Here is the input.
Amino acid sequence: MSLGLWSTGIARLALMIAPFALGYSDNRVALWSSIILGAVIALDSGYKLMERDDCRWEYWVAGGAGMIAALVPFVLGFRTETAALWSTVVVGCYSAGRIPTVNRASSPITVG
Here is the structure.
C-alpha cells in the first residue's frame, strides 16, 4: 500500500469534513461541492488501495476530480467564501499534483 494513496484519501476526507469544521456549511453550493468531490476522490483512493491491479484509470479520476475541485469555487461562484475557497483549491491542487508522482514511480518511461 502506498503512502501517497493514504495521504490523498485522508486529504479528501478532510475536504468532506471542511464545510462543518471551517463553518461554511450554510453555503449549499460550497457544502455539496466539497462533499461530492471529496467523496469521489476518497472512494477512488480507497478502491486503488484495495485492488492489486495495474490499471491507471483511478489516477485519472482522482486527478480530474482534483482539478475540478481547484476550479469549482471560481466556476460556481463561492470564491468570496474564504474557507471554502482555500480548502477546495488546496486539496484539489494536492490531488491533481500527486497523480504524476504516483504514475512516474509505478511506470517508468522508456525511450525507444
Q: What stands out?
A: The chain has one domain: 3-106. The chain has four helices and no strands.
